[in-house]
């Protein structure tokens, strides 16, 4: 991760210090409630943050199926694995701050995500437990040769698309939690450029292949709108 440190892209040292100061001030006043209060200001929507990204190019070209020779399922499989690895890595940068004490439930604003076990039983768990369950679940799937076949000629199962949808929904929960509960720490680490780029790529991909129900992603629509719309207008590096 350190070798991929985000370029500052116009974010001056002064701005970083201001951002860190804001984070520190915020943490002092943060109530000890079980979940983040809904009225909390969404710092990640401020232009000084949304303009920071690692790469600027047209993500719509990047997400589309690149050539007729590539099978749609192959393309979905390869992107699923890539997003899983990148989101796992992004979460790992703030995982020391995401504990059973700080995040007693898997929240994104007023939404609490519950884990459903293999029998469909709903269980409430802390955010780090939930993320661990997600990552373990996805790791198991993407390395299962019957579900994500890598050998030439081995077909994808008929359930493949529904599996992919499930994985993307879970990964979205992790991204939403990072923004809603750990954005200040991400800024302090100067990794908001990575997070914004990853999130934008993820949302553009999800929309292109219609992988998550809009009612699921609507809690982050304000950010998606800012990042995905402005992205197409940014041409300078
Ligand atoms: Zn957390």
From TrEMBL:
> What Pfam families does the annotation carry?
Mob1_phocein
Tell me which UniProt keywords the record has, alphabetically: Metal-binding, Zinc
Q: Which InterPro entries match?
A: MOB_kinase_act_fam (IPR005301), MOB_kinase_act_sf (IPR036703)
Reading the lineage from the top rank, the first entry is Eukaryota
User: Does Zinc count among this protein's keywords?
Assistant: yes
| Sequence positions that bind Zn(2+) | 98, 103, 177, 182
Indicate what this protein is called per its UniProt record: MOB kinase activator 2-like
């Amino acid at each position: 991760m350190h070798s991929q440190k985000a370029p500052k892209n116009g974010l001056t040292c002064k701005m970083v210090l201001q951002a860190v100061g804001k984070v520190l001030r915020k943490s002092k006043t943060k109530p000890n409630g079980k979940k983040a209060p809904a009225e909390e200001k969404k710092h990640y929507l401020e232009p000084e943050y949304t303009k920071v990204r690692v790469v600027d190019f047209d993500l719509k070209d990047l997400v589309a199926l690149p050539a007729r020779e590539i099978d749609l399922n192959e393309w979905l499989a390869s992107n699923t694995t890539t997003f899983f690895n990148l989101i796992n890595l992004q979460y790992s940068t703030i995982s020391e701050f995401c504990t059973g004490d700080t995040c007693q439930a898997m929240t994104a604003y007023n939404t609490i995500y519950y884990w459903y076990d293999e029998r469909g039983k709903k269980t409430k768990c802390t955010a780090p437990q939930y993320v661990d369950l997600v990552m373990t679940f996805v790791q198991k799937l993407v390395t299962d040769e019957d579900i994500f076949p890598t050998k030439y000629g081995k077909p994808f199962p008929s359930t493949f698309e529904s599996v992919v949808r499930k994985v993307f929904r879970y990964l979205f929960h992790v991204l939403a939690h990072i923004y809603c509960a750990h954005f200040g720490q991400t800024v302090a680490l100067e990794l908001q450029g990575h997070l914004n780029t990853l999130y934008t790529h993820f949302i553009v991909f999800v929309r292109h292949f219609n992988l998550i129900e809009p009612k699921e992603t609507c809690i982050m629509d304000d950010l998606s709108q800012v990042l995905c719309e402005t992205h197409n207008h940014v041409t300078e590096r």
